[in-house]
Amino acid sequence: MSSVFEGQTGAKRRVIAAGPRRREIVVTVLSVALAIAAVGSAGATDTGAADWTLEKCRRYRDAAQEALQRFGSIGLSDEFLSRHRAFLDRDCADPRDVCPRSPQELAFADRLIIRAMNAGTASTFPPFGCRN
Q1: Are 80 and 99 in contact, with CB atoms under 8 Å apart?
Q2: For burial by CB atoms within 10 Å, which of 2, 50, 108, 111 has the most?
Q3: Could you give the CA distance from residue 132 to residue 49 in angstroms, rounded to a whole number?
Q4: Are the C-beta atoms of 116 and 63 separated by less than 8 Å?
């Protein structure tokens, strides 16, 4: 409901009276504002998560290179090394299908899991897992 009144200057103004209609407008405006804020913060969160994933990958890659330099690749199969390299080349994206089979591969995987955790990633971040 609205009413028209004449102000001190003689100009006529239309005023929305307080009541159900005004509440509807206020609720709608607030809802739109909250929706816009939520979409904006979701985008920022997604970007932050992607940045953190790349940072974890960088840390993991550094740890893997250091481990290979320090302990060497004796006992690590070509399949193990190529799958591990593919994981790094994908910026640490799935699949996580590097299966340690030999004692040396298992020791390498153990070292990297510990190093990854020390670098602030979860123990599930490294690519080690055997499907069969």
Answers
A1: yes
A2: 108
A3: 31
A4: yes
